[in-house]
Amino acid sequence: MQVLVLAAVLGAMVWLVGNVQSNLERQNINSGFGFLSERAGFGINQTLIAYTEDDSFGRVVVVGLLNTLLVSGLGIFFATLLGFSLGVARLSRNWLISKIAMVYIEIFRNVPLLLQIMFWYFGVLRNLPSPRQALSVGDAMFMSNRGIVLPWLEAGAGAMWYGVALLGLAAGFFWLRRRTLKAKLTTGHSTRFWRPLLVLALALFGAAALMAGVPFALDVPQLKGFNFRGGLTVIPEFVALLLALSLYTAAFIAEIVRAGINSVNKGQREAAAALGLPERVALRLVVLPQALRVIIPPLTSQYLNLTKNSSLAVAIAYPDIVSVLAGTTLSQVGQALEIIFVTMMIYLSLSLLTSWAMNRYNQRMAFVGNNT
Amino acid sequence: MQIFRTLCVGFLGLAAANLLAMPSVQAAGKTLEIVQKRGHLKCGVSQGLPGFSTPDNRGKWTGIDVDFCKAIAAAIFNDPSKVKFTPLSAKERFTAIQSGEVDIIARNTTWSMHRDTALGVDFPVINYYDGQGFMVRADLGVTSARELDGATLCTNQGTTTELNAADYFRSNGMQYEIVAFEKADESVAAYNSGRCDAYTTDHSALYAQKLKLSQPKAHIVLPEIISKEPLGPLVRQGDSSWNDLVRWTHYATVAAEEFGVTSKNLAKMKLSSNPSIRRLMGLDGSFGANLGLSKQWAVNIIRSVGNYGEIFERNVGVQTPLGIERGVNALWTKGGLHYAPPIR
Ligand SMILES: N[C@@H](CCC(=O)N[C@@H](CS)C(=O)NCC(=O)O)C(=O)O
Fold first, then answer.
1. Disulfide-capable partner of B123 in A215, B111, B241, B340 (CB 3.0 to 4.6 Å)?
2. Pairing status of strand B235-236 against strand B176-181
């Protein structure tokens, strides 16, 4: 039966594609994906990979996607951090803390996100001074209505060795952590963790320095002409969008966390207290792990929402995938069908990927939870 | 099951695409008939560009582009009010005409080869000769676009403006940062608040947008014109009679100016013995009928919106807040570029 349905759907799709194509041809509208290899010809003001006007529309897609991933990834990180803190604070026995958390949640949850984005962009960041009057921190970091400019490390040849050293250090970190955990579980004693890690770091970076010297130059921004040159610029569109997405989503996450914690049987807390665990430790080791099972599914949909909401970027000219692909590219190329299709597929893949990762995590949590 | 979900989304998308690509195909060749049957013209305009298309304080649309659509309604219905205006952003406009949402777009749109040949649209005529320029704060101390190296530019997404700026800065070996907004009002607001050093768009629009700034006098338009922006209406490709009607609606206003026919002197001009004027007024020949219109088609246009000179002066001319000189938009007989082929 399912095979039949699948065949029917696929057949209908093939027919539809053919139909659309012949209609477009009759209307003399270009079709197909050939445009992806054509020269884009327009500039983008935040690119995580090298990009110039001479690059192709295909590269524009990657640039836009990375910008979406950057703002969503960081947004998810900050929203989670803030959301969990607020959720816990909301249940605090301290009246003031719990009320502050409540007021925050009610405000940020109930003001439309687009308004919040506009507020941060037009209401707050526009009030920063012009570059010539920029606020500066030690003449190295500057804040103006053009964004935040930071000193940046310019990596030269040989910087790769430092990357290798960093990877080695990460591997060492995980290996050491595993070892200490294992030792704790089997012998009950803790083994050394920080000291061997430090030794490893020194050894690795020492080796890198021997191999490559110091291939880094500090690039300090300087005011030249209209604006700062050099350093790393964080554009205000990014700051406004990240702030709005994180603060807005945090309010929802806080409520999810609160509900999750409330769902944990009161007896668990009391048992932890009876064992003499301090309240903080009980929260971290007893309550939260169990609450997570309730928290993760709605949390996942908040992550998905945040990613999709990042497309509101268009309103303030942050060059995310919707802005550069379904916006600029669409109107320069004109092939609405293909471009909207690609955009939809990108969001669909992002959503499926996030759901998949969160489901895996949830399964693990559920497993751990059942065992305790 | 996830594969099913993916398939379904794709399927729905395709079905929608199919619908989108359908109505205009059916409409091909019969736009005039459809408009007549519907009883009004559907005209795509900007979201608010003073002088070209903008709602006034009573919500009535005014501007050169608005008058263009009114002229067509006058030619078809002898009633310039039979138009429904649809505001479109720069990036929405081509999809709107392709999908049949509107019959014509008169939205300060540049006629370029790519748009003409790849988007399934036609540009019947040019109703305003423009070029791209820059506006900066006067206290920036910049007097030429060549001094803009390293500047940040605010502009609209999906415009020729974005591409021209890229070409200009590159070919002059200058650096720039572009901040491209979807809506014109947002890019003007961002420029106004100091996000950008310069605002760049069509010269005419610079004058129009300048009026929206908090202190218009504190800003200057730089002298350079870095591109050709022939602005004109566009229609769906494949209906040449509709294309003709749109083209000759414009030429009727240009010819009228050339012959001195205005909205005020129509009665007198009807008595003229000048054969050119007699043909324009529908007294000789069957020009209206060939367009599928009445004999009076041009008279109806001129009575409703005036000749090209009247339209220009009323909307963007020196007496208006925009204060734009005729310049290249004068008649060919006065050193400009507006030149109507003979009506004969
Ligand atoms: N002529 C150019 C630019 C047209 C354009 O969209 N200009 C903007 C900037 S002034 C505009 O009209 N905005 C008014 C609106 O978005 O409604 C083109 O065809 O691409």
1. B111
2. unpaired
Contacts of B90 in chain A (CB under 8 A): 331
Task: ipTM value, please give it.
Answer: 0.83
Query: Considering the entire predicted model, what is its pTM?
Result: 0.85
Q: Do the Cβ atoms of B115 and A334 come within 8 Å?
A: yes
Q: Which domain holds residue B170?
A: 132-227
- Report how far residue B44's alpha carbon sits from residue A334's, in angstroms, rounded to the nearest whole number: 17
pLDDT for position A371: 44
Tally the residues of chain B. Answer: 344
CB atoms within 10 A of CB A131: 23
Alpha helices in chain B (DSSP H): 2-21, 23-27, 31-38, 64-77, 93-98, 113-118, 160-171, 184-192, 203-210, 240-259, 266-269, 275-280, 287-290, 297-305, 308-315
Return the closest-CA partner of residue B253 out of B314, B208, B206, B207.
Answer: B314
| B109 Cα–ligand 1 center, Å | 7
Chain A hits for B178, CB-CB cut-off 8 Å, are 42-45
- Count of domains forming chain B: 2
Q: Does domain A34-126+234-371 have CATH number 1.10.3720.10?
A: yes
Domain boundary among the residues B188, B209, B227 is at B227
For residue A136, is pLDDT > 70?
Answer: yes
Question: How far apart are the C-alpha atoms of A135 and A125, rounded to whole Å?
Answer: 13
Alpha helix segments (H runs only) across B119-239: 160-171, 184-192, 203-210
Describe the crossing of helices A288-309 and A236-263 by its angle, rounded to 10 degrees: 150
Q: How does DSSP assign A47-71, residue by residue?
A: -SS---TTSBHHHHHHHHHHHHHHH
Is residue B67 less than 8 Å (CB to CB) from chain A? no
Res B5: pLDDT: 53
CA distances from B123 to B112, B127, B247 (A): 9, 10, 9
Cα A25 to Cα A4: distance, rounded to the nearest angstrom: 32
In chain A, % of residues over pLDDT 90: 54
Q: Given the DSSP bridges, would you call strands B151-156 and B176-181 parallel, antiparallel or unpaired?
A: parallel
Of B11, B117, B181, the CB nearest to A13: B11
Is residue B288 a part of any domain in this protein?
A: yes
pLDDT tens, position by position, A274-290: 988 888 888 888 898 88
Query: How far apart are the C-alpha atoms of A178 and B67, rounded to whole Å?
Result: 76
**Within a domain: residue B311?**
yes
Chain A nearest CA to B106, separation (Å): 16
Buried b (16+ CB within 10 A) or exposed e, A59-71: bbbbbbbbbbbbb
What does the block give as tokens for B295? 């004999």
